[in-house]
Design goal:
With about 240 residues, this protein is α/β, with parallel strands linked by helices. Helix content is about 35%, strand content about 30%.
Length: about 240
């Protein structure tokens, strides 16, 4: 992939609101969220548990819909997409990494990484060749034949990262990608995400409780009391 022009806007969020029905009343998780994300940025989303960080990420990734407001990705209005078009958008434009790896336990690492290409109709040999290349990118080429249960937590998350990126998405969306890992392993996984972000010209949105990781992103959005504010990374508490 070629380097992406840093000033080009990729995501635009306008007046976003999410309301959940709770018994006889409405719970407003957040409202009037507006911000923009440029191509090539690494954006951290922080906030207390329950602030709506994961829900926001799901809306930005077309996995959930907002109660009001709009999300535009490369000028495409996500709310106007049909279910099939939204699925196509997710499959082609976004790589998702979650706190839990969601690897299929009956398959090997290379088969798990190849799965998105197989679902697109690529032949098995071609898909697994590309999967091995991505396992090499994340330092796990020698573990290609191991099933997920034979891998450590950090290795499982690296396999999940390779699976997320094998389709060459524009956007990487990661929800607490280091949340289940010990401190040293979390550091290694975050460093890997940072390197792949740079080398593949990604735009990355990372939900995290780890303030040290958030400080190393280009920008930080903090969600609190149903609102969002932008902070300078260096202004985050230690």
């Amino acid at each position: 992939m070629h380097p992406i022009e840093q000033t080009t806007e990729l995501l635009r969020v306008e007046g976003l609101k999410k309301v959940f029905r709770s018994g006889q009343s409405d719970l407003v998780l957040f409202e009037n969220l507006s911000f923009r994300v440029r191509k090539g940025e690494m954006l951290a989303i922080v906030g207390e548990s329950g602030a709506g960080k994961s829900t926001l990420l799901h809306i930005l990734g077309a996995l959930d819909s907002a109660s009001a407001g709009d999300v535009y990705c490369a000028a495409m209005k996500l709310r106007s997409l049909s279910d099939d078009a939204a699925a196509e958008f997710r499959n082609r434009q976004i790589g998702f990494v979650w706190q839990f790896h969601y690897l299929l336990p009956e398959f090997t690492a290379v088969e798990n990484v190849a799965m998105p290409l197989l679902m697109r109709g690529h032949n098995k040999s071609e898909a697994e060749q590309e999967a091995r290349r991505w396992l090499r990118e994340v330092g796990l080429e020698d573990r290609a034949g191991h099933r997920s249960g034979e891998l450590s937590g950090g290795e499982q998350q690296r396999v999940a990262l390779a699976r997320a990126l094998i389709t060459h998405p524009q956007l990487l969306m990661a929800d607490e990608p280091t949340g289940d890992l010990d401190t040293r392993t979390a550091e290694l996984v975050f460093e890997l995400i940072s390197r792949l972000h740079r080398e593949h010209g990604l735009t990355s949105l990372i939900v995290t409780h780890n303030m040290d990781f958030a400080r190393r992103c280009d920008r930080v959005l903090r969600m609190a009391a149903g609102r969002v504010e932008e902070l300078r990374p260096e202004a985050l508490p230690a």
